[in-house]
Please model this.
Amino acid sequence: MDDSLRVRGSVVIPPSELRWRFSRSGGPGGQGVNTTDSRVELSFDVAGSRSLPPVWRERALERLSGQLVAGVLTVTAQEERSQYLNRKAASERLGATLREATAPPPRPRRPTKPSRGAVQRRLDAKKRRSRTKRDRRPPEP
Model:
C-alpha cells in the first residue's frame, strides 16, 4: 500500500507528514478481538504542512476549524476487522476531507428575475384556478 496521499492534481502528502496510531477496536471480532490492533487513527498537521500550497492551507484551516485540534486533523476507521482495510478507509476518508476543504469556493450567484412571459403565465394560471374555485361555489341567494 502506497503511504503517500494524493489530495488533488499534483498535490501529494508524503508519508512523513502522516501519523498513524493503532488500537483495539470494539465490536464483533471473534477470537482475534482482544489481540489485534485493528482500529486506525490517521493524523495530519494541516497548520504545519509543507506539502499543501499556502492558499489551500488557509482554506482548509478555515473550513475545518471545528474538526481541528491544535491545527491537526484526525480521522479514525474501525469498520473492518483487518488493520489493512481500516488503513485504506482512513486514508481515503482523510483524502476526501482534504479535497472538500481545499476546493475552490463556488462562483457567486447572480440574481435573476423571471421573464415577462413567465410572470404572465403564472398570473394566467392563478386566474384560471381562481375561476375554477369560484365556479364550484354554490350560487348566491
